[in-house]
Amino acid sequence: MLRIIDCLKKTGLEIKDIKKFVAMAQEGPSSYAARKELFEVRRTQAEGEIARLQKALAMVKFKCWYYETAQKDGGEERLWEMIPDGLPKDIRKLYDLGHS
Hints:
The protein has 5 helices and no strands.
């Protein structure tokens, strides 16, 4: 039960709602449908948060590459000419995801 509570907490479920879940679990099989629905909602919300974080991470990775390249080049001029179509394929993926 502690692992489940920790999981629910990590997905942003409020304490009052975790208490409701614990009460449902104590009810037994009659609350299976409600508990399943709670986890389906948590899954959807967690997937949305993961997608948001993946987008942010892509932008961070792109900017790390960008400024590393700018340092090596001694400026950003070449980079400005590369964006977006001239970027290396792997960097273009990061750029596209980060700017979507």
